[in-house]
Structure formats: C-alpha cells, structure tokens
Amino acid sequence: MGKIGFNKIEKKDFNYPEVGVGIIGYGFMGKTHANAYKKCSYMSWPPAVIAKLIAVCGKPELEKDTREAAFRFGFEGYYNDFELMVKDPEINLIDNCTPDDLHYEPVMAAIKAGKNIFCEKPLAMTVKEAKEMYYAAEEAKVKHMLGHNYRFMPAVRMAKDLIDKGFFGTLYEFRGKYLQSYGSDSNELIEDIWYASGTRSGINLGIGCHIIDMARFLMGEIKTISAIQKTFNITRKNIKGLIEKVDADESNMSIVEFKNGAIGSIESSGISFGRLNWHTWEINASEGSMYWDLENPNHLYVSMRKTPIKEITGFTKVSVTQGQGPFACFAWPPGHNIGWENGHINELFHLIDCIINNKDIEPYGATFYDGYVIQVIMDAMKESSLNGKKIEITI
Q1: Which of 45, 123, 215, 239 has a CA between 20 and 30 Å from the CA of residue 366?
Q2: Is the pTM value of this prediction over 0.90?
Q3: What is the Cα gyration radius of the chain?
C-alpha cells in the first residue's frame, strides 16, 4: 500500500555534477572529511556540487571496523586494499587520511592510476618523498591538494584578501603560534601523546607545519630561518609501565626572514599547559595590524592607520559570519557562528569545484608544491637547531 501524499524523488530527475570519492583511513580525519564531503553536497546551494561517497579503505585485519565505518559515514562500500581502491572507475578523487608515515605509497598509487588526490598534512616524512610526490602529480596532470584547512577559515581568507589588495601596505612582522598541551604532564603515558606515539612524528610535523604554511600563505616565501627544537621529556612510561625513549620534538621556536623583507617568529608546542588547540597569528604592517585565534574563529581583529576619526585607535572585532565572501554559500544567518569543521568543508568544496570546473587549486589551496617547500623548511629548522646557525631556504 502506497503512502498517501508521498512523492518519491528519482536521481535521474537531477543533473548536478558529481565527484566520486574514496577515502583511505576512517579515524579522526577520515570522519572529518566524510562529514565535510556530505555537507558540501547540501550546503553549497546554489551551485550544487555532489560528492559521491563511493568507498572507504582500511586494513585487511580490521575489516569489521572498516565495514562499520563505511556504513556510519554513508559510503556505498569499502576496500581492504588501497591498490584496488585506486583502480575503481567510479572514484575520481582519492583522499588520503592515513597516519603521517603512510602518505607516500597510497598517494603514488593514486597518481599512477590517474586519480585526483588529496593528502592530509604533512605531505611526507622526508624532503625526498615530498619532492617525488609533487613531481609525480604534476607530471600526471592530476589535481593535487594538501590538507592545510586553516587557509579556508573565513577570517584567514579575509586577512589574505586585505593583504593582497594592499590595504595594509608594507608587511613588517608576523608572529605565529600553534600550541597544544597533550605532553605537558611528564607523567602522561606515551600512548596518550599523539606526537610521541604511533608514527612518533613530533610536534613540528604534526602541527608546526600548519603555522609554517600560514606564514607563507599570508606573508610570502621564507628566506632564512634560525630555530631551536627541544624535547623536554626524553623518556616516558608506556601502558605496561616500561620506560620508552622519546625522540619526537615537543617544542619549536624560530626566527624567520621573508623574501619581501618582513621578519617573523614561528612556534609550535605540545607542552603548553592550558592551550587546547591554540593556532594564532598577528601581522604588523605600515598601514595597520591584525590578528586571529583559532579558538575564537568567528572574528578577525583589525587595526587600521586610516580611520574616519584619528582618535579611534586599537583593534576592531570584525565578525566573519555575515554571509559574504567566498564561503557565502555555506553561511548560516549572520551571527550564527562557524566552527572548526568549517575549514574542512570550505577546503574540500574548493577541491571539488576545481576538479569539476578545471580550476587551479592555487593560490588559495595548498598543493603538493607547498607540502614540499614546508618539508624543506622543517628540515632547515632541524639543521639550524643542531648547529646553531641561520639557514637559507633553498628550493
């Protein structure tokens, strides 16, 4: 018996462009990206861009978990082998959300299969791998994008546009920090500290790369860097009560010179007690200053030299929830605040739009080239910290 008044919708009645998506990994970032792809499809109206969730991929020994994740996230199915996933003809875009040390092989396999590719940051574990991934993607002429989602927070994009339009004049100084507190307790078990366990990537690879990218995005290329890296807790207990050596960096501080003549400081830390996810920066320039804080993402603080009344000084708290700018299609009514997830939604919408309409990922999106350059900078920081010298960045 039919349902009275019910009108069934047929997919054939709509002709919205689609991109078939396959995500490798279903942990924190896999869930984040699945959420973003789904929201891209119904928040961007108009124009509608449909991310078709084809498959998620996990390890063969974790098939039950992979199958459950595919169901929960709304995928059509799943794979236990990324080599098979990248050959799926329905998938146009491979999204690599695996741990840091597993980025290289799936990305190279996807590129070889001619798939557009998104990779979470950092691009790789070494400069050599990052360079190979960048050149391979360029040679294959596929769209390639790296997960620096903070470029796509509305306040950051507003800042970028204000700088590019010349409103701030000559850039003088940049101060950037990305601080967390996971390792601030020396008695914390190593398994509970993400940067010291698992891939043991360290703070710089884990979150420092974000603030390096932010410095380059807003200020331009880095010319030289002088850095100190430190591991304060060189041993930690594991869950079995055994002592393990910690090689991962916990704190990084750098002084940089930019090619445009500006100077700056860049910090990242996993031992800053009280700081949960504090990504913040300030820019000082000839015509004003501005700053932003990820833990208060809905506002950009701006102070301009040229004001209607010269007695008006200090910073103005500018709301970025007005439904204007490049992310207007995702905006709720003014004052209905955004959250951390919005950076990923905006980022992945940009990627899908670039694929469907053959647009350039740059300058707003980070590409594998950016990942390669950031890897060079992070290596220079290590070298500087070891020998106490200023290092010139050479690409």
Answers
A1: 45
A2: yes
A3: 22
